[in-house]
Amino acid sequence: MTNFDGKIALITGGTSGIGLATARRLLDEGAQVIITGRDKSRLDAAVEGLPGDRVLALRGDAADLSDLDSLTDAVRERFGRVDVLFANAGVASFQPGADVAEDEFDRLVSINFKGVFFTVQKTLPLLSADASIVINASWTAHRGMAGASVYSATKAAVRSLTQTLAAELGPQGIRVNSVSPGYIETPMFHENVEPEAQADVLANVASGRFGTSQDVADAVAFLASSEASYINGQDLIIDGGLVSAIPA
Ligand SMILES: NC(=O)c1ccc[n+]([C@@H]2O[C@H](COP(=O)([O-])OP(=O)(O)OC[C@H]3O[C@@H](n4cnc5c(N)ncnc54)[C@H](OP(=O)(O)O)[C@@H]3O)[C@@H](O)[C@H]2O)c1
């Protein structure tokens, strides 16, 4: 018997990085896992790399409401419910606030905030009585970083959303928490942190290493599990000390 035996887990953005590691962790613990992403070939590759036959990949853009309808329809038809929702799909880009163009602002807000908001809203009718929602925020919701104005604001928005949803859904027995990863070595990290900048970035991390997708997957699995049954409306920062500790 493991924490997620027989549970149905929906993970948006499950083809890479943190979402993929969380899919693997929940599969290892007995869940039936549904992963999403925008790209069919990346979905196929993710399924190929995951163990067993308890994973279903569904193509869809988390920022597109009709895709979300199709996704939730497919999950309803196949499984009838969702026990764990990890609203993880997100994108990042960094530039000084003075240089942010309207279309880039809209892209980030659309995927990182609107996408998470409607992913949760559309999944609500499927949530089981003791379901758990985990939302992927970011350390940048907790500490200002030059160049991160729009990205950080989208993450602060989902952090706030977590608290409101906890208040709205708590009385039904549904818990809502968020995670705030620090610098986690995923494709997103490598797209945004140049190799020559990494030593300076790492100097801010008290633990002296970048995080792994597994570090975050372990925290998501804990928050989603019955071991966290009295944890609601919280944000768990997984950052090696980046936000709260200044290394010598
Ligand atoms: N890595 C870090 O240092 C870090 C730190 C703090 C927070 N985070 C957050 O962690 C989450 C996962 O990031 P990651 O680092 O694991 O990045 P990643 O490796 O780039 O993975 C992002 C995942 O999201 C999917 N995705 C992106 N836009 C989507 C959309 N519109 N609809 C559906 N799926 C979408 C991607 O698949 P497709 O591209 O195929 O759609 C991919 O599966 C993000 O919300 C990110 O903001 C990451």
Main features:
globular; 17% strand; binds NADP nicotinamide-adenine-dinucleotide phosphate; NAD(P)-bd_dom_sf; Sc_DH/Rdtase_CS; Rossmann fold; seven-stranded parallel sheet; KR_dom
Structure in a nutshell:
Residues 7-182 form the Ketoreductase domain. This protein is an alpha/beta fold and 248 residues long. It has helices spanning 17-28, 40-49, 65-78, 102-123, 149-169, 187-192, 198-202, 213-224, and strands at 8-11, 32-37, 55-59, 82-87, 127-136, 175-181, 235-238.
Structure in words:
By secondary structure, the protein is of the alpha/beta class. Helices cover 41% and strands 17% of the residues. It has 8 helices and 7 strands. It has a 7-stranded parallel sheet, with helices on both faces. The protein is globular. Bound molecules: NADP nicotinamide-adenine-dinucleotide phosphate (NAP). The site of NADP nicotinamide-adenine-dinucleotide phosphate (NAP) has 32 residues, from helix 1, strand 2, helix 4 and helix 6.
